[in-house]
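tool_call predict_complex ligand=magnesium ion
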Amino acid sequence: MIGDAYFQLRAQIGTSLFSLAKLARDLDASEGALASLHELQAGLREPFLFVALGESGAGKSSLLNALFGRDFAGDPAFTGRAAVFRHGAETRDVPLAEEIVEAERPHIFLRDFTIVDAPGFGSPAATPHVLQRFLPAADAVLFVFPAAGEARASWDFLAQADREFVRRFVFLVQQADAAEGDQLMRAVLGLHDRLRELPGLEKLERYLDAGIIASPVRFQKLREICTAADDLLFQLGGRTRSVSETAERKLKLADEQQSALAAAKDEALRSLDRDVWSLSQIFEAAQRRGGEILRRRINQPALWRLDIEWRDLFFRELEERVREGVVRNVQLAAEHCDATLRAAWNAQREKLHECGVEALGPFPDDCAAHVATLERAIAESDPLGATTSAVVDRFIAGRVLLRLPAFVFAGAAVLAVIAWFTAFFFGIMLMLLALAFAVTAFAPAILQEHLSAILRRATSARRERILARVEAEMRAEIDRVCGELKASLGSVAESGTKERADSQPTLDRVLQLAELFDHSIDEIESYETRPAADAGNSAA
Ligand SMILES: Nc1nc2c(ncn2[C@@H]2O[C@H](COP(=O)(O)OP(=O)(O)OP(=O)(O)O)[C@@H](O)[C@H]2O)c(=O)[nH]1
Ligand SMILES: [Mg+2]
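tool_result ok
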């Protein structure tokens, strides 16, 4: 069949266009895009128009039947009329005018060719009006001369025909077998002489193949269709490409932000550790200061004085100042934590926003409320005055006990004087006196040591309680914020994975089609750059 290479390439492009149309429908492409695609498909299907011209009985119908290998032309019912053969599902003849009939036939080759079997020049229907209807649009005009006879009407027609037009004519001598050798030679030579200026007569099939069907114009048309289809494909794939790119960005972001989030959490926890250490130092300092107060203020006179004059100082230094220090440090710790988490939150929010995801609201401004909660917790776990009361109560109980040796000392002293005069028990009294003096002298030191131990235990218990409470609250806050950030990353990763899975099949189809169109364009280029003779040979 003529034009095999061209039709194969065209069929390949047609298949790609069909897939593109399916993709366009699946993607709910715009009406405009679908219309363009439809136009491309119609353009690709545009059949070649071949017209057979010549004298009546020259052999036009026989030539067409031989060329296409089908007995479709030459129906006596069409004699004297122009028969336009087109593809149709069934055989159907539709008169278009008195001299023209459209003959629909189910032959496959008619999908690619519209063939006009023109009325012979001798017949009344062969008017310029009828012929002009087909000739300007014809891809090839098969001009048939009989081997015998003058064919005067043919020459008259050619004499008046437009030269540009005649370039698409292929001149043939039919019925060569029926003519005598000399007669045929004369016919061919005569035709050759008269057509010297016209394109050379090549073997018909080879010429039609290389010169008409696989012509630069037709390849250019195919290339335009492929390029337009490629552009359309690029537009159609735009949304899927952007969905896929966004999905990739989301997945990359979720991945990168996981480590950024872990780093921010580490930083917040390290900062918390430092702040907790600072808090513990407040208690260390308080304990030292309390010990100092006890050392300085608990002495012999203090055991006998009615009022406890160091109580207020003790309360101020070990309770009020500690409370102030703790609250100040807790505020600082909360601010540090807030600043670290806020920075991580805002950085992540901005990154998500860049990806078009609004999974995070603004950072909750609840630092003050958080500090207030912590302050309440501290007040609950360390009521003001408790330590002072504990130490002072012990001091009161202790000093009552420690006044006793002083009384013993006084009594022993009196008894010692009596014993001195009576010389009785003097030695025993002296010993008692010494013992009572020793106990009385060491009484403040004993009490100091006892109270210091109480203070140490109380301060250490306070520190543990407060530190544990503050640390637990702050850790919970860090975990809560980091948990929210992590959850938002999780949802981003999830949507990224889903979008990637959703867009991948379409993206694959787009890429596959783009490759097919590119491949077709390469093939067209290889035809276009092939030397003419080579193209002719391969097509023949
Ligand atoms: N021997 C021989 N006869 C041929 C050849 N070509 C055509 N004929 C015969 O010539 C006669 C006319 O052929 P057609 O093909 O009908 O000629 P046509 O040009 O279509 O004629 P119209 O339709 O009447 O204009 C028929 O009887 C054919 O069998 C050929 O190559 N050799
Ligand atoms: Mg005929």
